[in-house]
Amino acid sequence: MDHPSNMKMITKLLFRLLPIQILLAAVGAVNGIVSSYFATNYVGVDAMSAVGLYSPVNMLISSLSYILVSGSVILCGEYLGKNRRDEMQGVFSLTLTLSVAIGLLFTLLYVFLGLFHLTGFMTRDPVVRPLFDQYLLGQAAGLIPLLLGNCFASFLSLENKWKLTFMASLVYIVVNLLLNYLFVCLFRLEAIGLALASSLGMWVFMAVQARYFFSGRSAFRFSLSNVAWRETGSIIRIGLPGSLTYVYQTARGLIVNNLLAVYVGLVGVSAFATADNLMHIFWAIPGGMIAVSRMQMSVSSGEEDRQTLTDVMRVMFLRFIPLMCMVCAGIILCAVPLTRLFFRDSAEPVYWMTVHGLRILPLCMSFSIICMHFTCYGQISGKQLLVHLLSAFDGVVCVAGFTALLIRSLGIDSAYIANVLNGVVTTLTVILYSWIRKKRFPRNMDDLMVIPDDFGAPENERMDLSITNIEEVSSISQKVQSFCLERGADARRSMLAGLSMEEMAGNIIEHGFTKDEKKHSVDIRVVHKDGDFILRIKDDCIPFDPGERLKMAGGDDVTKNIGIRMVFRIARDVQYQNVLGLNVLTIRV
Fold first, then answer.
1. Domains and CATH numbers, the chain
2. Burial code of 95-104, b = ≥16 C-beta within 10 A, e = fewer?
3. What is the pTM of this model?
4. Strand, helix or coil at 466?
5. Bigger pLDDT: 425 or 513?
6. Residue 46 in contact with residue 192, Cβ under 8 Å?
7. Phi/psi-derived region of residue 529, left when phi > 0, alpha when psi is between -120 and 50, beta in every other case
8. What confidence tens digit (pLDDT) does each residue in 420-477 have?
9. 3-class SS at 119?
10. Helix axis angle, 4-38 relative to 266-303, nearest 10°?
11. Which helix (H) or strand (E) holds 187?
C-alpha cells in the first residue's frame, strides 16, 4: 500500500540533499570545462585532443573511486540501518586506507608512463603524444586527493554535513580557475599546466573536507588500528558490479576514439571530447540524483524498509526524470552559444561537429537516470545479473557497437546517436528482466524492482501511519494498541506500545514542529517480528536524541522529561540515529 506521507518526506529529503550532490558531481566536470576552455583558447586543438585521449584513463580512475565510494557507503548505510556503529567505523578507516594505497600506485604508474614516453598505445601522433605525456604527469599529482575527496564527500553526506562539501567545491572551482590562468596563460606551461591546475585544486578540495574528520566532531573516526580489512571483499563485492560501467566506459572510450580517428580524423576526437566535457557539467545532475538515492536505498535496505525503497524509485520517475527533460531541452536550445565558448569559427569542421553533439547527446540523459538507479538498486539487493547486463550494455556494448555500425554513413554523429540508442536498450533491459523474473509484465513498482516477497515485514504484520498535528496523536496511539492486541500481545504490552508512541510522537510535534516555520510530518511504522513489536518513528525536524536529553537531565528535577523517562523505563530497547538529516527512533516493546 502506498504511503503518501512517507513519499512526501522522501521527496523532500532527496531534493534537500540533491544540490550539494550535483555540485560535488560537477567538480570533475568543471575541471573538464575549464581545461577545455584553456586548451582550445590558449594552447590549441591538439591540446584538446590530449585532454580527450585522457578521458578513458580518467574513467578507469573513476571506476576505482566508484568501487570504494559506492561499496563503502552502501555498507555503512546498511550498518547505520542496523545500528552497528563499530563495523561502520572499521569500514570508514578501511576506505581511506585503500584510497591512499590505490592513489599512490597510480601516481607512480602515471609518472613512469609520462617520463619515459610509454604512451604509444594511446596515440602515435607526433604532435599530440608529447602533450598527452605532459598532461599525464600533471594529473599524477592529483590522484590521491581525488580519491580521498570523493570518499570524504560521501561520508559527509551520511552525516548531513553537506555544507562543508559545498564550501570545498566552491573553493576548488575558484582555485582551479586561478591556477589555470596562472599556469597556462602567464607561465605558458601548456598541457602540464592544465593538469597541474586541477591536481593542486583537488588537494585544496580534499583538505577543506578532511579537517572535519580530524576535528573530533565527526561520527566517523579514522584509526589505523581499526581498519576492518575483512570488509575489503564486501566493499569490492558491492561496488564492483556498478563500477564495471566505468571499466566498460574506459574500453568504450578507447574504441570510439580509435573509430573517430580512423573515419573522421583527430578533429573528430577533439569535437567529441569538447561536447563530452561540456556535457559532463550537466551529467552532474543525474550524478547527484543517484548519489542521494544510493544513500537512502542503502539505509532502507538495512532497515528492510520496502516502502521507502519503492518511494525512492517513484521520486526518480515522477520528479527526477521530468526535471532532467527540462534541462536537456535547455542544452539543445543553447547548443550554438555553448559551442562558441570553445570554437569561434563556424567555418571550421570542429565547430559544427561540436554543435551536433550538444543537440543529440542530451537525449540520452533521462534514459541514463533509469539505468543508474536500477544498477544501484541491483548492487544493494544482490541482483548481480541485472547489474552486469546494464553495466555491459551501458558501458561498451551499445555505444561502441552502434558507433561501429553507423560511423561509415553518419560520421561523428554516429557516436552521438549511439548514446541515445544505448539509453533505449538499457531501459528495455530493466523491463525485460522484471518480466522474466516475475513471469508477467510489471504492473507496479514492486514488480519492476523485483523485490522479494519475504523482504521486510509482510503487509499484514506492519502498519504505516503519519501524524501532522497534535490532534492525531491520541488516535494513532489507539491504532497502535489495537494492532498489537490483534497480533497476540497482552493488554499491558499493547497499552505500553500505544503509550510509548503517544509520548514520543507528541514530543516531536510539540518541540520539533515549532522550531521553524517549515511543514513537518512524523512517519510511523509498527512491525510485528520475531515476537517483538518494533515502533519506528521518523521525522524531518531538527536533530533530537532523546537518550542524550535524558543523560543531560541527569539528576535534575524528575518532573522534567517525564515522557522520555517513562519510555526508556518501559521499553526493552530504544535506539536513536540521525540518518541523512532525518531523526529515526526505534523502540522495542
1. 4-446 (no CATH), 460-588 (3.30.565.10)
2. bbbbbeebbe
3. 0.69
4. strand
5. 425
6. no
7. beta
8. 999 999 999 999 999 999 999 999 998 999 988 777 767 778 888 887 777 777 788 8
9. coil
10. 150
11. none
